[in-house]
């Protein structure tokens, strides 16, 4: 069973005619975007706002009309994946390196739907190392400040070179062990000069679409 396909396609059902839709990044929301492409070809009228260059290319390929984020007055709905989700619907995101644009777009969205296969659902955040986007200037100094918060921070590397985000920044993957109380950490992290954004999404998800132990799609309303 392809859980990513199941949850990705389920989320596409929330997209209605006339919506401005935030398009997330990754291998789960890939299926949402594919499905939306099919629906656009069949007459659905939407405008997408991509959270990464990768997603922009995919959306163009499947025929979803796009608009620049800076021109958006509102986003009706944003759909995105997650690396981990805890029982309070707090998330770690940024495995794909798009956390900054993902958070900006989710923040503007009236509704934020997360698509997550069952492996992403955890009791406590932190087995997945927390991605933190930092500026390149003085990055080792920023790294030391971040480590004082109680983690080991490793510079993300791709093809033997530091990984550079769509925004021209570096990413540190930070091992805090269990993150039992994500909100203070999210705030403290962003107080450090040189930190642009971190991958903790606290209290942002409105729905999480996942797969339960019986193999059924479970559509959780995070607002009770
Ligand atoms: O945060 C992200 C990218 O920055 C992704 O949403 C997250 O990494 C999940 O990706 P996938 O659906 O491929 O497991």
Automatic annotation (TrEMBL):
Known role: Catalyzes the reversible conversion of ribose-5-phosphate to ribulose 5-phosphate.
Membrane spanning stretches: none
Annotated EC: 5.3.1.6
Record lineage: Bacteria, Bacillati, Bacillota, Bacilli, Bacillales
Superkingdom per UniProt: Bacteria
Gene3D superfamilies to which the protein is assigned, alphabetical: 3.30.70.260, 3.40.50.1360
Protein name: Ribose-5-phosphate isomerase A
MF-aspect GO terms: ribose-5-phosphate isomerase activity
Keyword tags: Isomerase
Subunit structure: Homodimer.
Any one Pfam family match given in the protein's UniProt record, by short name: Rib_5-P_isom_A
Pathways involved: Carbohydrate degradation; pentose phosphate pathway; D-ribose 5-phosphate from D-ribulose 5-phosphate (non-oxidative stage): step 1/1
Binding site for substrate: 25-28, 80-83, 93-96, 120
